[in-house]
């Protein structure tokens, strides 16, 4: 398929990639058959509204038509924050996800559960909507959606965090990939019902955030441990929240600090995929530390991509090539 790329952005110049030295565990592993290149389609914050919902099947078809894509990641927000959070809508999007010819890995966003307390979204109890979301999209922990089956490691297998089936991990192309359930609305700390919560609702909301954050920290540690133990070249962490919007937020502080610590200690490249704020962005947000999160030591091997959101007119084509000097390259792809 011939297609016109909007932008082609390898990691170069200001975003130079660190490569393991020859003879290192990661370097020697790069010659193995398991180190073949991998191409993924990445999207988030879509579909938004009736027009995009009607066009979403064309986006699925466009990605299905790319013969190089082998995996698909959706970074959450499968609807607007002001549209109803109904079971029927969840089932419709899940059915579209099942149309992907390649495995689809999805991590939730705030619009499909945290923000469902809003009147326009239906005035739901957010935690009830989270349970409903899990029953539709994560009914089989460890199984990706899509036509082609793919087994994932799920945090549901950990008795201490068994409810978090949405936190998944897999290893491909000498990289450990993981989804981490961290969402907008300050990771769920934003009060429900316009601040008119009952004390019981506040307690439930804060307890959920605490449990989900604890699970996220464990999952991040486990993912880096996997990469280090197997001598992998990279780590990719996918989540919905833009954790750096506004200079830092309380709900993300522990997660960002853990990512900073583990990335700094990791002898490889780290790619952080996020959505939430809708505008395409590539940066190294921790390259000089981060005052808002109290990070004083630089983290030079973590690159972040915020995908373009609120659109079904493009997706991100991410290529991982462990045999190349540049481990990660990507292009924004318009939908034909």
Give a description of the structure:
The protein is an alpha/beta fold and 336 residues long. The protein has one domain: Metallo-dependent phosphatases (Purple Acid Phosphatase, chain A, domain 2), CATH 3.60.21. It has 7 helices and 13 strands. The strands form 2 sheets. A 7-stranded mixed sheet has the order 5-6-7-8-9-11-10. Strand 3, helix 3 and strand 4 form a beta-alpha-beta unit. Helix 3 runs parallel beside helix 4 and helix 6 packs parallel to helix 7. The longest helix has 31 residues.
Task: Report the sheet with the most strands, covering strand number, pairing sense and barrel closure.
Answer: 7 strands, mixed
Overall number of domains? 1
Q: Going across the major beta sheet, what is the strand order? A: 5-6-7-8-9-11-10
Distance between the termini: 10 Å
Radius of gyration: 19 Å
Strand content: 15-25%
The CATH architecture can be named as 4-Layer Sandwich
Provide the structure class. Answer: alpha/beta
Low-confidence stretches: 1-31
The counted number of beta strands is: 13
> What is the CATH H-level superfamily?
Metallo-dependent phosphatases
* CATH class category name: Alpha Beta
Structure annotation, total helices: 7
Shape: globular
CATH topology: Purple Acid Phosphatase, chain A, domain 2
Helix content: 25-40%
**Element-by-element helix/strand order:** EHEHEHEHEEEHHEHEEEEE
Mean pLDDT: 91
């Amino acid at each position: 398929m011939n297609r016109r790329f909007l932008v082609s952005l390898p990691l170069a110049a200001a975003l130079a990639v660190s490569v393991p030295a020859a003879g290192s565990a990661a370097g020697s592993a790069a010659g193995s058959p398991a180190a073949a290149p991998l191409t993924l389609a990445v999207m988030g914050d879509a579909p938004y509204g009736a027009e995009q919902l009607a066009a979403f099947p064309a986006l699925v078809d466009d990605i299905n038509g790319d013969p190089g894509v082998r995996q698909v990641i959706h970074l959450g927000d499968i609807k607007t924050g002001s549209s109803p959070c109904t079971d029927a809508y969840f089932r419709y999007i899940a059915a579209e996800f099942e149309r992907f010819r390649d495995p689809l890995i999805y991590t939730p966003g705030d619009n499909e559960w945290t923000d469902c307390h809003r009147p326009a979204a239906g005035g739901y109890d957010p935690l009830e909507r989270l349970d409903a979301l899990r029953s539709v999209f994560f009914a089989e922990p460890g199984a990706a959606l899509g036509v082609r089956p793919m087994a994932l490691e799920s945090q549901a297998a950990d008795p201490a965090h068994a409810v978090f089936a949405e936190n998944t991990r897999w290893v491909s192309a000498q990289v450990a990939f993981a989804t981490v359930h961290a969402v907008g609305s300050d990771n769920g700390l934003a009060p429900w019902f316009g601040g008119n919560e009952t004390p019981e609702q506040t307690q439930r909301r804060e307890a959920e955030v605490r449990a989900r954050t604890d699970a996220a920290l464990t999952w991040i540690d486990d993912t880096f441990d996997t990469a280090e133990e197997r001598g992998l070249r990279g780590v990719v962490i996918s989540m919905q929240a833009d954790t750096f919007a506004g200079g830092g937020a309380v709900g993300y502080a522990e997660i960002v600090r853990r990512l900073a610590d583990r990335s700094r200690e990791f002898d490889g490249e780290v790619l952080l995929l996020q959505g939430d704020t809708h505008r395409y962005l590539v940066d190294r947000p921790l390259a000089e530390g981060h005052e808002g999160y109290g990070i004083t030591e630089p983290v030079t091997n973590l690159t972040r991509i915020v995908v373009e959101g609120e659109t079904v007119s493009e997706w991100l084509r991410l290529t991982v090539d462990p045999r190349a000097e540049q481990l990660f390259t990507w292009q924004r792809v318009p939908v034909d």
